[in-house]
Amino acid sequence: MKKSNILIIGAGINGLVAANYLQKSGVNVTLIDQSERVGGACTSEVAHINGENFHYALGASVLGLMQDFIFEETGLSSALDTFVPSHPKLVHFPGDSQATMIYRDAAELDLELAKKWGEKGDVRAFREDENKVIQYLQQGYRDAIPPSLSSAKTTLGDGLTKLWITGSARELLNHYLTSEKSKMYMAMTISESGPVSLDEPYSAFTLPVMDSGSVFDGYYGFVKGGIWKLTEKLGEINHEQGVDIQISSKLLEVDLEKNHAIFISPEGEKKHKYDVIIFATDPKTALDMIGDQKLHTEKKYIGSSGKLNVVFKNPIQWKDATNLPDTDAAFRFLFSINSIENFEKSTLSVLEKNKNYDPGYMQIYCEGGAMRMMNCNEPYDRIAVFMKNFSLNKSGADLQSVKEDALKKLFEYINNPEDCIWTRLLTPRDLKDIFHFPGGNIDHTVLTGGQTFSDRNFSSDPENHFYRLLDNENAFICGAGTYPCGSIAGTPGYMCSQEVIKYINL
To answer: Which of 9, 126, 332, 459 has a 20 to 30 A CA-CA distance from 243?
Structure first.
């Protein structure tokens, strides 16, 4: 029996995961990418510091949304060392005398938020109900079953489905919480992918999605050596399994009727015959290649997240440090606003013309501290600062004053700011230019009503062919713009691979 030939466009995490599962199923897989290396946005860059080459995470920094079964079945779990801080997350609001601890235990968290933020709601019920939704999502990931309102209602009931999936974030937060600060902290992820209002339908769904990874039980952690080691290693594993990986290869043409693609590689122009083609790319790239323009105007792409990479010549001395052993690796959140309405205003400000940036919050990933916990000694300390809210107007190089203001705020919480020796700010404009993110969006499309949950697809028949690309029988898509979302998860790649396997075995 002739083996099916599968062509995958894009060697980011989803393309790599899809290739892994498909190759093991017994088909022939060719994986092409125009970059010089695999990884997509999960790659490193070199900073030249004091005559040394120092690697840092250019795009993604942490591992969070990947499922444990993907981590294990691809071979990554036995090839990589990881670390997740047990230290509570540390949250600072303007005027706070000390950090608020975000404990994993719901009872401890309830007491902490009541003490620090005057929370009088039901934090324990919030966490309990969120976990029910997360378990439902994780089972769907495992079984590769596309989401649907009917299955959600069957499993969760009408009440939880309305609150956590179809409802607005504001309704969800008001149902459980009373404190402005509690609501702002829990609402951070609503604007993860772009400027989404708290009042938009389906905006509530972003909360459980962003906590639905299972490698670290809903938390985020680090990979020894840097997050880019994950995609590098998966590329090596795939190559050993027989995947034909062709980097520095740009797709030129796709003929969906004749089932062939033309791409240019270092060896010259190649014509590739396939049985199935999978676009593990952003949706705009996929739609451009197949000649569809209609969806370009129907989808919301604009992103608003930026990233500030910071390097210190000595370990950072945090003012909020505790006596816990992993305090240097704890996640930290610095807010610039104290009210939910100002949070909403700053989130949507990027939609205003000529508005470059509006301070919202900074999320700090202490990569260097995590490396030390894994006995990975580096010459410098490094952190990644995830920032909101940027427009698409300017690159980081054009926003020197924004970078200086961000560093000034950051240094308020550090005892040795004089040790900072290198920085780089990336805005949505930069992310668009470097990684081809539509609108500079880290999730490729905004997580909002009409393009999240069961609507987060590009199929003409999502009920039966969720990851199918429009109405093309043998064309599929599994980038970050598909369900559930982006991040270094690989879930779209896995779920798409299972749909392809069913298709070729019919």
So the answer is: 459
Residues paired with residue 269 on neighbouring β-strands, in sequence order: 264
pLDDT of 354 reads: 84
Q: Is the pLDDT of residue 21 over 50?
A: yes
Any idea what the Cα angle at residue 460 is, between residues 474 and 296, rounded to 5°?
100
User: Is the peptide bond prior to 441 cis by the omega test (within 30 degrees of 0)?
Assistant: no
Are residue 199 and residue 126 in the same domain, yes or no? yes
Residues 352, 418, single domain; the answer is yes
User: Does residue 374 sit within a domain?
Assistant: yes
Domain with 326 in it: 305-390+393-426
411-to-100, 205, 335, 348, 406 alpha-carbon distances in Å: 18, 34, 14, 27, 9
pLDDT tens for each residue of 256-271: 999 999 999 999 999 9
Instruction: Give the pLDDT band of residue 240 (cuts 50, 70, 90).
Output: very high
Distance CA 64, CA 356 (A): 29
Specify if 320 maps to a domain: yes
| Residue 361 predicted with pLDDT over 60 | yes
Task: With residue 46 as reference, give the H or E element that holds it.
Answer: strand 44-49
SS3 of residue 3 by DSSP: coil
* pLDDT attached to residue 1: 40
117, exposed or middle or buried, with CB in 10 Å at 0-12, 13-18, 19+? Answer: buried
Helix 106-117 with 180-187: angle, nearest 10 deg: 130
> What Rg value do the Cα atoms of the chain yield, rounded?
22
State the Cα–Cα distance between residues 397 and 427, nearest whole angstrom: 9
State if pTM tops 0.85: yes
| 293: confidence class by pLDDT, cuts 50, 70, 90 | low
Long-range contacts of 21-24 (CB under 8 A, 24+ apart): 21/73, 21/74, 21/493, 21/494, 21/497, 21/498, 21/501, 22/497, 22/500, 22/501, 23/238, 23/241, 23/242, 23/243, 24/241
Dist. CA 366–CA 374, nearest whole Å: 13
Pair (322, 421) in one structural domain: yes
261 CB neighbour count, 10 Å cutoff: 22
State how many domains the chain has.
Answer: 3
Using the 3D structure, point to which of 174, 191, 218 is the last residue of a domain: 218
Residue 263's SS3 state is: strand
Dihedral pair phi/psi, residue 211, rounded to 5°: -110, 10
